[in-house]
Amino acid sequence: MMEAIRCSVEYLSEFGDCQSHSVRIIQDDTSLFLTGGDSNVLIFNVQERKVTTVLKFETPVKYLAVNAEKYGLYAFCENGGLYYIPLPPHPSSSTFPGNKSPDPVLYTVSDDSIVLKNSSLQAFTIVEKILVTLGFHKSIWSFDLFEEPESKPLNKLASFQVTAVNTCSLNTIEDVINIPDKEKHLSSPPVLACIYPQGSTSLRTHNSHIQPHLEPRLFRLMFGVDASLVNSPVILCGLPDGRICFFPLFLPQMAGPRGEQRSPFRVLQSLEQPIIFIGSCVSGEQGPQCLVAVGLKGKLLLVRSKKETSEGKEADYSFNEHSIRGPVMCACVDDKHLYYSSLNDLHALQLTKTSSSSEATESHLPAMNSDSLGICRIVALAGPHTNPTGSVHLLALSSSGRLLQVNLPQGADTGNMSRLPSFQAGQRLKDLLASIGNVWEKAESLKLKLQDKNECLKRLNQVMNVCSVLLDNGGNEKQFSMGKQPISCHCVASWSSMLLRDYLTLRCVLENASAYTLEQGWTLSIQVHPLSHSQCANMESSSRTYSFPFKKLDSGQTLEITIPLESFGELSLPAKVYCSLVFSLTALFGLETSLHSIGVSQLLTGTGSISVPMNTLTVDWLDALRLEGSFSPGNTLKHNTAMDGIQAFLSSRGVLTQETYIPLKLEPLTVEVKVSSELLKTKLHLSATSSAEICVSVLNWLVSNPDAIGQTYVQSPVVCAYSPDGCTVKLLAKEVTMENFSSEGPLTVLEIRVESMSLAAVCGLHHAILRRLLVVLGEKCEHTKQLQAQSLCETVRHVESLYKDLQDAKNQGALGGTMKTNKILFRIFLQLRANPLVIL
Q1: What residues form DSSP beta bridges with 735?
Q2: Bridge partners of 34?
Q3: Strand partners, 524
Q4: Which phi and psi angles does 294 have, rounded to 5°?
Q5: How many beta carbons lie within 10 A of that of residue 370, not counting itself?
Q6: How many helices (H) and strands (E) does the chain have?
Q7: Higher pLDDT, 387 or 121
Q8: Which pairs count as long-range contacts for 788-797, CB under 8 Å and 24+ apart, including other chains?
Q9: Residue of 20, 14, 65 lying closest to 38 (CA atoms)
Q10: Which residue(s) pair with 718 in the sheet?
């Protein structure tokens, strides 16, 4: 059963992802040298907890080693170059000259620092001023020994080769993490380690707690008397095929029986899986008496010395193989413990409790229980280091690039640490799982709330963007505007028949040409507001509002709806149509939520919604003309008498009168509007030159739909149509010349005439023509005409006479003469229309 050690973890720094097999960390005193498989080597100061120097190479770095004597850094890169960079004794923020900033120094390493070029190099180490390299080429492992460079080129001291064997299959790291086949030969590099005999002069000059070493008896038994006599360090190599090999560094090559040179290379043992780590550890009370080797799949080799038996047999050493939890990503040892990382956890194994029995078979290796440190995804380890207080510190690098310091409690014996009693483990596990479940439920709840808030903010941001686009439109009347808005509503009046009746309807098309989507919650609102009203209906009751909610309107889509213009079987013209978009805040925040934004509050209505105007248009008698076909019986508006026409006209101007009788006029009623031809051609941008073409263009402009650009409705200067009350109407246009009107000479005037038996139609069409001219000619005119005094005086006298008659009618109406008053008003109306003023 694996038990957990109570340790603390300190976060030191964070780098990029470290998934590469070339991840290396080396600690030397307070400095940590780190590479994550890219082209940078970081020098990290553990005390200051920051990166002080960045060494940038031309290609990614594959292997690192530190020369402790000269304090230099060796780095091997993918370009096959082995670089040597000398470093000052204590790297800090001032490692390289010219750095006075707390930021890291970037030092670019040039090719001048290359001391060896060998593309087949796999690993190297520096021992006693000797550079030992290991290369692999064409199934041959090559060991080369160079004298450490005082100057280039290197002086090769010795070289020997070993044939590679393929004894292990599917035992490499890439088999666990699914690395492609073409990269497998790079995924398990060999391991080089140097073992010193305890008490040697070379060991005393270095930090003995860092350099692996063995007590003299075990060293002599394993590596031979010759190596022990000259106190030669021994190079151990763990090959990817599972072999653990060694050769003494200072022992000269021996001659064979036939005089040939014998290779000092020997095979110590084979784990039949790639070697991850080689080191030494104290397994007893007489010093370092154990050699430790760890394989990728969890095979652990412990080599110990045996004491002399009572029968007087000579002391020997034993190979003890055990099984630990794998796969092993990295490992390190201290005096009594092996620390190793699997994919799921960081473990601490107490080696002093392992059995020395060697009776285990290959298929049933004795399993060893380790203590879990509760840290996962560790890919590199440095240390361990023991403080004077007895606490152990490990530096660990995770696959996500986080550099961690793992602090173990005081006392190296993990068996004496406080652990949970076994009889409480089940209950504690249940409590822990229950707590995890509660935390998970709370996390899911918070996650859903956060998602709802993010979605709400996203939609609110979309709403504000749409409001900004709509407010830029200004909400003005766009009936005659040629510019296209990103979000607009186009309305066209047309006649339709249903159940033997004719209805005037308004077809509205909402077009979304913006880059935003109108989501659910938006409503198209259309308000029809008659500008005239009858005696029995007030303004408010005659106004109607139509709302059309929709789910979604993407960019480039349109929404088409049709509404009636009649109200209670009565058609009131002209009518003002207001188009707006309304967004209900309940779609975002619910009924209880309120907004506090000043920019939005000015758009809020009492119903808790945002209402943004789009455009406004007026539907008049010209829009209601029926240019083709005929009316069915039983139409809505019937003003057959002159009295009805006057009542309709007065009601359209807001005047309420009582019903009185006015005799019928059997001849058609006629009204005229006179406009300067030059002014119309300028304002309407007419290209016509002849008189007939100008007349047709003006009539086509009057009766056509402003949004239907380029369509032609009339072909002659005379238009015959039906008015909304079912009566025939005739529109005529012709150019006339007024001789004695302007002092600048004859004036060409376009005369627009309306003829009909219906007084209501004549009044309504006359009002519609004047309104459209007012919209088009409302801007300030640049040209003025000089009128003749005589013509101007006649016009003024005529208007004064009509004004005097109007005042008389007003006085008689105040005295109760309703019948006479209506006759006078009717006569004034006919005179005004018969001799209209000229619009210049």
Answers
A1: 750
A2: 25, 42
A3: 548, 581
A4: -125, 135
A5: 23
A6: 15, 47
A7: 121
A8: 788/740, 788/741, 788/742, 788/743, 790/740, 791/740, 791/741, 795/837
A9: 20
A10: 732
Provide φ and ψ at 705, rounded to 5°: -80, 125
Q: Which three-class secondary structure state does DSSP give residue 546? A: strand
Q: Facing residues of 399 across strands?
A: none
The string of pLDDT tens digits covering residues 216-236 is 888 888 888 888 888 889 999
Range 390-395, long-range pairs (CB < 8 A, 24+ positions): 392/334, 392/337, 394/332, 394/339, 395/12, 395/25, 395/27, 395/32, 395/46
Q: What's the residue count for the chain?
A: 840
Burial class (CB in 10 A: 0-12, 13-18, 19+), 595: middle
The CA distances from residue 797 to 792, 800, 803, 828, in Å, are 9, 5, 10, 14
According to the model, what pLDDT value does residue 401 have? 87
The Cα–Cα gap between 450 and 250 comes to 68
Tokens representing 435? 């707590």
pLDDT at 686 over 60: yes
For 264, what's the count of Cα atoms within 13 Å in the CB-facing half-sphere?
Answer: 22
How far apart (Å, rounded) are the C-alpha atoms in residues 187 and 23? 11
| Residue 513 CB-density burial (10 A; 0-12 exposed, 13-18 middle, 19+ buried) | middle
Angstrom distance (rounded) from CA 703 to CA 713: 7
**Rounded CA separation 201/603 (Å):** 88
CA–CA separation, 646 and 823 (whole Å): 10
Q: Point out which residues pair with 82 in neighbouring strands.
A: 76, 116
Report the C-alpha dihedral over residues 449, 451, 456, 462, rounded to 10 degrees: 170
Residue that is written with structure tokens 């509660």 in the block? 438
Peptide bond into 574 cis (omega under 30): yes
Contact at 8 Å (CB) between 764 and 621? Answer: yes
Query: What percent of the chain has pLDDT above 70?
Result: 71
Helix, strand, coil percentages (3-state) for the chain, rounded to 5, are 25, 35, 40
Taking CA atoms, 43 is separated from 35, 52, 53, 58, 324, in Å, by 9, 6, 5, 17, 33
Q: Please report how the helices 642-652 and 818-834 are oriented relative to each other, as an axis angle in degrees rounded to 10.
A: 80
Q: Is 505 helix (H, G, I), strand (E, B) or coil?
A: strand
pLDDT of residue 549: 92
Strands 718-722 and 402-408: unpaired
> Which stretches does DSSP call E strand in 690-764?
718-722, 728-742, 745-756
Residue pair 826/663 in contact by the 8 Å Cβ criterion: no
Query: How many angstroms separate the CA atoms of 716 and 83, rounded?
Result: 95
Tokens of 299: 């095979």
Reduce the DSSP state of residue 825 to 3 states and report it.
helix
Residue 393 has what pLDDT?
A: 87
DSSP element (H, E) containing 792: helix 789-814
Instruction: Give the whole-angstrom CA distance, residue 134 versus residue 65.
Output: 13
Q: pLDDT tens-digit profile of 261-319?
A: 677 888 999 998 999 999 888 765 555 578 999 999 999 999 887 766 555 556 678 88
CA angle 177, 181, 185 (to 5 degrees): 90
Q: Are 87 and 152 in contact (CB under 8 A)?
A: no
Of the listed ranges 60-74, 555-569, 628-642, the one predicted with least confidence? 628-642
Pairing mode of beta strands 669-676, 838-839: parallel
**Distance between CA 188 and CA 784 in Å, rounded?**
97
Q: 223 and 233 in contact (C-beta within 8 Å)? A: no
Instruction: Tell me what pLDDT residue 601 has.
Output: 47
Mean pLDDT over the full length of the chain? 77
Q: What stretches of 393-424 show up as alpha helix (H) in DSSP? A: none
Q: Which two tokens stand for residue 178?
A: 């699914």
Tokens at 148, concatenated: 């450490």
Q: N- to C-terminal Cα distance for the chain?
A: 106
The token pair that represents 137 in the structure block: 């080429």
Q: Which backbone phi and psi does 817 adopt, to 5 degrees?
A: -85, 75
Query: Helices 818-834 and 789-814 sit at what angle, rounded to 10 degrees?
Result: 160
State the virtual CA torsion across 730, 733, 734, 739 in degrees, nearest 10. 110
